[in-house]
Amino acid sequence: MRIILLGPPGSGKGTQAQLLVQRYGIVQLSTGEMLRAAVAAGTPVGLKAKEIMASGGLVPDEVVVGIISDRIDQPDAKNGFILDGFPRTVPQAEALDDLLRHKHLRLDAVIELRVNESALLNRVETRVAQMLERGEEVRVDDTPEVLTKRLASYRSQTEPLIHYYSERRKLSTIDGMMAIDEVTRAIHRQLLALGAVEPKTHGKTLARSAAKATSAKTGTKKAKAAKKAKKAAKKPTKTAKKAAKSAKSTKKAKKAKKAKKAAKKTAKKAVKKPAKKAVKKGSKKSPKKVTKKRAKR
Ligand code: AMP
Description:
This protein is α/β, with parallel strands linked by helices. It has one domain: 3-Layer(aba) Sandwich (Rossmann fold), CATH 3.40.50.300. The protein contains 13 helices and five strands. Helix 9 packs antiparallel against helix 10. The N and C termini lie far apart (95 Å). The structure holds adenosine monophosphate. The site of adenosine monophosphate has 17 residues, from helix 2 and helix 3. Adenosine monophosphate (AMP) binds next to helix 2 and helix 3.
């Protein structure tokens, strides 16, 4: 399966791409990630891209087309891939059509995640806060100023792709404002309708991996609490310890009671014998009364 995820920064393309990777065993090809790796490694491509990326502009088409073409040829991409952040311009889309044709590969679908622009700034701010919380390095282009520029370049250079793929009957638009698992389910339904995936993939499993992704991404209090509860469940609680102790003491008490009963029985027997003797010796008192009296002592 080969699909493109289309959407502005903060629309959830990365999150959904990761879920689709888990679900369908295909690879995520994110030009943003590849460029960031090139910047970190200080490669010629990285040196070229560094400033452009930091300011929120777009890296030249030939650079990204080159890295995508090489990446598609890697063995792990044979099973299929999700393009995340590529193509971003009409010339990139045309170049992709060309290179897929040359490689005899077919594009199954283009999924557009449509989001409310006013929510994007909030989403990116949340992403930054969560990355900081996890101790991860924050992207230099995840600031309100750069985001505004990235949004502007999306509108002017990437949005025309909606028309491009719609004309070629490849476009499916999904409401990206829904919860993560709902978006995942909607994408899955769409891929099923297009015949891009087998119907065997189960909704529940999908929801579970989406939930996992949510907690992994957000590192929510809930996830932390669940982890703590799991750990605690393995340890015997104070109450459990108390219960075990009291069970032990109950056992002890029962044993003691049994011993007491046995002692009483022996005592009774011991008392009975001299009573019989007393009768024999001609005592007028009834053996029963004697027994009672002696037992009382
Ligand atoms: P992303 O992680 O997809 O948001 O990309 C981060 C930055 O990498 C973008 O703001 C661009 O500067 C650059 N970039 C990523 N993909 C492309 C692309 N297909 N074309 C041009 N620039 C790109």
